[in-house]
Amino acid sequence: MTRSAQASPARSDPREAPRNNSDVRLSIEQVSYAYSANTSQAPLFTLEANSFQARPGEVVAILGPNASGKSTLLQLIAGALVPLSGRVLLDGFVTHALAPRARAQRIAMVQQETPLLFPVRAWEFVLQGRHSYGRTLRFDNEDDLLVARNALAQVDADQLSDRWINEISGGERQRVILARALCQQPLLLLLDEPTLHLDIGAQVNLLVTLRRLAAENRYTVVVVTHELNLAAEYADQVVLLQKGKSLRVGSPASVYQRDLLEQVFHTALTVEQRSNGRPRVNLLPTS
Amino acid sequence: MRPLTLQRLLLQCSVLALILFAVVLVAVKMGAVPVSLYGLGRDLISVFLGQTSHLSSDYGMIVNEIRFPRILLAIVVGASLSVAGTSFQALLRNPLADPYVLGVSMGAALGAILALIFESHLALPVWLAVLFTPLGAFLGAAGTIAAVYFLGRREGQIDSATLLLAGIISSSFLSAVIIFLLTSGREFRGMAFWLMGDLSSSLQSSLRWVLSIGFLLATGAIYTTAADLNLLLAGEKEAMHLGVDVRRVRLVVYIAASILTGLAVSVSGAIGYVGLLVPHVMRLLFGSDHRTLIPTAAFGGAIAVVIADTLARTVVAPSELPVGAMTALFGAPLFIYLLRRRMA
């Protein structure tokens, strides 16, 4: 694998050590995908070749308007979709070729909320994260319970343990869902619009938690979001997509250019470069 | 946290086994000819001691040759339908799914009738002839569930309402075909009763073996996916991300549930409501973890059908009701109660 062949993200922070392949955990290599109604027709949606890399402890945000291919890219990274070309490597393994259990032990996905058919209690839900570690008919053992308790504590949700999952608030539920993902003890934590339906306090809280977890547990975190300012504040890298094309990959400061964002999101805005090196986007009122 | 342990599961199952035992005792006792429990107990002890000559002959014949086989049949059929219903509910993510509602029972019945028609034209060896009807029923069940599954999809996703409609339409279409076959064929005139669910036919012993072994294998196969089914309730994508081999689980449960429905229908006709209601009652009592739900639903289904069949053969004695009429009589109000409770 040659570095020159990669669309290596330009990083603006000079303090960052230059990357070498040994500390890259997640490597997206020229991955593309196409949805089509049937094989004879032209594809309805194409995700063009995408490349970026991420290391342990790093938070990557995938940004873009609706139907830009954010979730598709996330599913490709998760190995849930088989790419049309290219591959996704996680510690050297091709993600879509991993067996379901092996994949679940390495990659945890927090999806947009799915309704449960029959309600369960929060601890039962969190224990589901241990599924890939158990044998077919094994009952949950002490280790599993310990991992589940720790996971709930890590997201500050221990007091929710015995509540019914359908009777807690959206923010609380998001924390419980995150705890289940932690239970998988993954290398890679993927989140698909986790801040959707959350109030602003809960959104910030979630991103702070993600940042802390990435640092503490050395997860690589990839999060799809619409929240430009949250991504600017908490992501190490952002991937900006538009209509299936990857427009730019890099630090928030390098990607958040006024012209670029205005063109992608079709709205007037300003980008303010703040003293902490992180940009802030302000929407301009349209007359 | 109160995770499921083997001890708790065994305790729940033993309580249900005791209830089933009590129900069986009452069922043996009740009927056109009264049987005393005392005499029955004495006989059982005699059998255990190997003193078969001491058996009192007046009701021994009725108990051993008529009531007891029928009760055993009710147990296996009830357990099969209930486990099949539990599986369909999880597999299709639909709380209203069950073999009867989805038309799978009618598919199995049609399969069984077609098998009977073909069998009469072919000169099959006895061992094959015994397998032929259950096999036809299994194929009918598997074919119907496949058809309903594909009809019930909208934009690639299973849609609850469309699925149920597909089931209802398949069911009425299949029963029309069945009625046509039954009326046109002279030898099937008596089978309309069977269609409503009937446990009175005496089975050849080889068929009993097929039924019991099939039940154990299919239920065992479904039980190996119990933990996977828990995750499937949240959707196939979600389950996949948590490490469930969705395609394998779907295939195992689909085939095993079709076997259970096929076997049950081929020996007892289409008994409704058991597969729909028993799993819900068990969920209310023991929670929705399939590791508990599958075995408790098996016991619950057995208990329900033994009670229903006992009532069916005693309430209008000396004549009999089809057991399916009995399950519907009690099932429909219970269903409405559960539905309203759910909405409240």
Key phrases:
heterodimer; A: 287 residues; alpha/beta; Rossmann fold; four-stranded antiparallel β-sheet; 9 helices; globular; disordered N terminus; B: 344 residues; mainly alpha; ABC transporter involved in vitamin B12 uptake, BtuC; two-stranded antiparallel ribbon; 14 helices; 75% helix; 1% strand
Can you describe what's shown?
- The complex is a heterodimer of chains A (287) and B (344).
- With 287 residues, chain A is of the alpha/beta class.
- Chain A has a single domain, classed as 3-Layer(aba) Sandwich (Rossmann fold), CATH 3.40.50.300.
- Chain A is built from nine helices and twelve strands.
- Chain A has a six-stranded mixed beta sheet with strand order 6-7-8-3-9-10, sandwiched between helices. In chain A, strands 2-1-4-5 form a four-stranded antiparallel beta sheet, covered by helices on one side. A two-stranded antiparallel sheet of chain A has the order 11-12.
- In chain A, strand 9 and strand 10 form a beta hairpin.
- Chain A is globular.
- Residues 1-21 of chain A have low confidence and may be disordered.
- Chain B is mainly α.
- Chain B has one domain (74-343): ABC transporter involved in vitamin B12 uptake, BtuC (Orthogonal Bundle), CATH 1.10.3470.
- Chain B has helices spanning 6-29, 37-48, 57-91, 104-121, 126-151, 160-184, 191-195, 205-223, 226-232, 236-241, 246-268, 274-286, 290-314, 323-343; strands at 153-154, 157-158.
- A two-stranded antiparallel sheet of chain B has the order 1-2.
- In chain B, a hairpin with a 2-residue loop joins strand 1 (153-154) and strand 2 (157-158).
- In chain B, helix 3 runs parallel beside helix 8 (205-223) and helix 3 packs across helix 12 (274-286).
- Chain B is globular, with a radius of gyration of 20 Å.
- The two termini of chain B are 27 Å apart.
- Classes of the chains: A alpha/beta (287), B mainly alpha (344).
- Chain A binds chain B through residues 78, 80, 99-101, 103-105, 107-109, 111, 114, 116-120, 123-124, 127-129, 131-132, 134, 136-137, 139-140, 144-145, 148-149, 161-162, 184, and chain B through 1, 3-6, 89, 93-95, 223-228, 230-231, 233-235, 237-238, 240-246, 283, 288-289, 291.
